[in-house]
Please model this.
Amino acid sequence: MSVLVIGGDKITRLQSLLLSLGATKTHHWDSRRNSTSHKQLPQETDMIIMMTDFLKHNSMDHFKRQAKKCDIPFICVKGMSGCSECQITQMVEGIRLNKCSVPCQGGCK
Model:
């Protein structure tokens, strides 16, 4: 499973969680530069995690539209709380079973 994380500076804790859930590849865009919002999603992306604490609204909207267009499940989380970890775990399990039922979280719809 390939995961794209957008936002955040240090995602060590998130990378460890994703690795334990079976992610084989994790891409990270910190979204500090304006050019980030013009990037195209990497091919073979299975899931997108948007860290809303560190993401500009325009960038979030851009990637949300791309994810919907490409039918890629995404989740918006605010920081790495226990609740966020639980939501990410549920989403990964749903993707693995081909029945992702976790809607976008974090009020980004």
